[in-house]
Design goal:
32% strand, 129 residues, 6-stranded antiparallel beta sheet, 8 strands
C-alpha cells in the first residue's frame, strides 16, 4: 500500500467544500497533482475490470474506523476496505472474510486477508476474486 492515497474529500485542512449531487457543479482540476491523477486512474481501471465493483450488491462489514464491504456479482467478488481516520487503524476482519485469498486490484498481485488488517491513515485496499 505504498501508492499515493486519494483524498476522501476536496479541500485542505480546515476547509470544507460540499459538492452537491450530481457532483457536476464544481470543476476539479486533476492536473495540479499528477500522482493523484495516476491513482484515480488506477482505481477507475480496477472498477472497469471487475463486474463486482461495477454492479455488485454491497454487504457492509464496517466499523467506526473502517468502511468495509463486499460486492459479489456472478462469479466475481470484491472486498473494499477504507480507513476513514487520520491515523493507522487495525481492522478486525469478520469471520466470514478472515483467512481468505484475493487479488489486489490496485497493485495487481496476490493479497491474503488474515484476522486483522492494518490500514494507514486514510488508506484503502480494493481486493477482487
Amino acid at each position: 500500500m505504498g501508492a499515493p492515497r486519494l483524498p476522501l474529500r476536496k479541500g485542505g485542512p480546515g476547509e470544507r467544500l460540499v459538492i452537491p449531487f450530481p457532483f457536476t457543479s464544481v470543476k476539479v482540476r486533476f492536473d495540479t497533482r499528477p500522482e493523484i491523477t495516476k491513482e484515480y486512474k488506477r482505481v477507475l481501471r480496477a472498477r472497469a475490470a471487475s463486474p463486482a465493483l461495477r454492479a455488485g450488491t454491497p454487504t457492509a462489514y464496517s466499523s467506526n474506523d473502517v468502511c468495509a464491504f463486499t460486492k459479489p456479482a456472478g462469479s466475481s467478488q470484491a472486498l473494499v476496505l477504507v480507513n476513514v481516520r487520520n491515523a493507522t487503524v487495525q481492522y478486525p476482519v469478520p469471520a466470514a472474510l478472515a483467512n481468505t485469498t484475493w487479488t489486489d486490484a490496485l497493485l495487481d498481485g496476490p493479497a491474503t486477508v488474515g484476522t486483522q488488517v492494518t490500514l494507514p491513515a486514510y488508506g484503502y485496499q480494493v481486493l477482487t476474486k
